[in-house]
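Loading example: each entry is read as two labelled lines plus one structure line.
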Amino acid sequence: MIKVAVNGYGTIGKRVADAVAAQPDMEVIGVSKTSVSAEAYIAKERGYPLYIADLSRKPAFEKAGLEVVGDVEAMIRAADIVVDATPGGVGAKNRPIYERLGKKAIFQGGEEHEVAGFSFNAHANYREAEGKQFARVVSCNSTGLVRLIHALDQAFGVERVRAVMVRRAADPDDIKRGPVDAIVLNPATIPSHHGPDVRTVLPQIDIVTLAMIVPTTFMHMHVVQMDLKSGTTREEVLKVFERHNRIGLIRKATGIVSNAQLREYTQDLGRPRTDLWENGVFEESVAVLNGKEFYCFQAIHQEADVVPENIDCIRAMLGTVKDPEESIRMTNEALGLVPIG
Amino acid sequence: MIKVAVNGYGTIGKRVADAVAAQPDMEVIGVSKTSVSAEAYIAKERGYPLYIADLSRKPAFEKAGLEVVGDVEAMIRAADIVVDATPGGVGAKNRPIYERLGKKAIFQGGEEHEVAGFSFNAHANYREAEGKQFARVVSCNSTGLVRLIHALDQAFGVERVRAVMVRRAADPDDIKRGPVDAIVLNPATIPSHHGPDVRTVLPQIDIVTLAMIVPTTFMHMHVVQMDLKSGTTREEVLKVFERHNRIGLIRKATGIVSNAQLREYTQDLGRPRTDLWENGVFEESVAVLNGKEFYCFQAIHQEADVVPENIDCIRAMLGTVKDPEESIRMTNEALGLVPIG
């Protein structure tokens, strides 16, 4: 069993911990929090050993009925690998600790590529991860783009990508961020940083991205246009998506045309935390114009799509499973990721 | 003085009426309402003669202290030209009345092109309107696209246009429509109808559009990408916009990066009803990549940008001013449309 520590038990960390616990070849040896919170009680409910950054806060945790096993360094020492799901920028500060203790670590998309020196996506570059001490799972938006671009690049060749990210304003439990009634250009300059981020995994791709933030909480919505190298049809593209195990087709027959309805659907499906781990591609939107010009809308669940990538990244880095498809299949099966459409 | 009747005194009609009243060569001879409402009181406050569709409702208006001059047909008879600003689809039903009475009429973008047989934009096809009995001012989104595309087509030639419309959910006073927390694909199919609508004015343009609705009320946000025929620079493009009298550059120095801040700005400028009559192009977003690939974000005020177009359309159809630039200058001056940036 691979011993996994989750440093930072928040939006991503709590999902990764549950995903690790569900795998047949991994166990959660600890999760960390900096202060008492609702999530700390969830860790207790799940039975994950709780570690804290600053032991002087231990009495506050214990007063709240939360047992603390030790400090974060003790947790890291006990692990084979650490998934660092701390807030953006904190991972870079944690790296020297992992180096000093000689531990492998996976950072999230909130860190710069340089913090790990290697950016990961299971379908695109699984085999390159073996033996690396550090890797970074690219952000939710980049993960969603990389999956789609890589799939079509493999099938038809991709000449260039132009994409618009219409991003959710805040996560559902984030009561401090806005806007409540505005479309915010983020950034107002063109292009956005998402294109270069995709190129940390797919360096050969000509990609320009633009981004804005709108008042919704459930998911990002991507408008993706690609010029393909070989001509194809809508039907051929749909076949590629149907065969892909992390791209879900939202069937026209469901009547779902928004992130809100899609969330209701994943909720009804019984997905934990309503998580959409795969890309949600709207079948109705898939179009091939002029023979080579691909278009679609896809929903990207900002809290969830990177979770299975973290799991695959663990196996890839440790070299316990050599074949990416085998790891992806194991991860999906353990999570209960079956086609949504 | 050109005698103008405004049939349908709502979101667009009330703005057109004020714009007509501000012109030196036009007067409002009447506006129409179907029932008592806040807007009927505004008509009274402005001194516009009030006509109603159904005279049996006259007692209800009079009980509310609103004087009714007569029915809509009487208003039409008294006019040289009618601006039909009734809800989408009603214009088509009104057309036989204008035909029977031999009156010129201007429809709005909520009607099909075929209702008028001629779609209008002041910069693009002013001279073609002369002598026509019917014209249609294209929708707010199409007006915004046509201005931008035509300007760059004149300057550099436009090879193709790809645009994403991120649309406001409802007008600010519309308390019945949603969504409040969703990104709705509208339509979920690609392309949207906006491209063909642009081509009713600019038939030569290769354009593909996509559209969605988000929870905001102030303005639409457009992501516009154009491949230009001749290579150019960001500076040359900015010069085109600076010289254009219905494209406003939102300067980076203002710090405005959203529709909400832009509305606050037009409000502070003292614009009536905070109206942004021109395209709001974000200076910071203007980019020329690879020499010929143009990008920008632009804000389009759904309630306002078609208003000056209706005014120019009146002069164009009646032939009282032959030169489009002269009419545009007169309209802008009377409205107080001075550069925002």
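The two ends of chain A are 34 Å apart (CA to CA).
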